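QA checklist item 7 of 12: single-chain prediction sanity check.
[x] sequence parsed
[x] length recorded as 361
[x] structure emitted
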Amino acid sequence: MKKVAFYIDTLYRGGAQRVMSNLVTYFNESYDVVLVNDFITDEQKYSYPIPETVKRIYLRKSLEGNPIIKNISRIFDLRKTIKTEQPDVVLSFLGNPNKRILLATLGLKCKKIVSVRNEPVHEYGKGKVNNWIARTLFSFADGVVFQTKDAAAYFQKSVRDKSTVIMNPVGRKFYEINRIEPVQDVVTVGRFEQQKNHLLLLRAWKEIEKDFPNDMLIIYGDGPLREIYEQYIEENNLSKRVWLPGLITDVPEKLATAKVFVLSSDFEGMPNALMEAMAVGTPVISTDCPCGGPKMLIQNSINGLLVPCNNAEALQSSMRELLKSREKRDRIGVSARNRARVFAEGVIYDQWENFLMKDVK
């Protein structure tokens, strides 16, 4: 049986972590699977589940220690782990894990695949030096998985030539659920972090909320910016018009009852929450953010609406447009669901398996 090693820093909740959890679960059905994480964390209740039959390896016991020393030791421990486990294929996700795995596997015979999960400028840094480091390290990879063509453009032709573009997989439960009437509210799902720019959504909602008294803005998620959001809500008298319920597990049901879904991010890879809303058939609005995920998913005014990044005026106009017209919402929702067929999990897992196991003897 072929062995596949997966490497990511942690499985703490996030888009890349969810995709890796799903891939580990899928490959575990047909391959010998090892999952390597950097640390044993105390955040297990917020981590994505992994089958008990998957071997778990942690490179360190805690987060403590000098950052430089920790990073160097992880590279050596990672190399030792790969030499011991002898996988046929290694797959890593995210900027720092990708750098570490490419250094740790220099000279080793396993097939080395890395995946860029976000806007490369943010994941690998701006400027000629950071770009050179990333380009040099990626030259050691046997294959690279991007989420968008725009992300691939950050790298040289020799890297692009051994790469592929694979969208994120969306689970069956999002396709199986039907829209639940009466639909209500504007919703989004995402971490309370600067990247998601929920303040843009709050600013846009503040300007139109009085025109839609039967709807609320609901932001599902949590994170370090919660207090800032709560302060904005209080200062603008929005406490009866905005709800921050925290983390949820019944995402399909929440999307199925939503009138409109909005993604207000400054940058994204391939946004899971947007894809899930489309699979449910919820009308979607998204910023046309780098590195091009939303514009790959959405044909403007056909299966969703695209707006410029950080433009509250354009966002409020698009929200108003959909909230006012059931006919437009229904038409866009049906088209979004049709578009979503191409990133159903079965389709995407086949693409991953074909790319990872190609030429593996």
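[x] summary fact logged: The chain has a mean pLDDT of 93.
[ ] second reviewer sign-off
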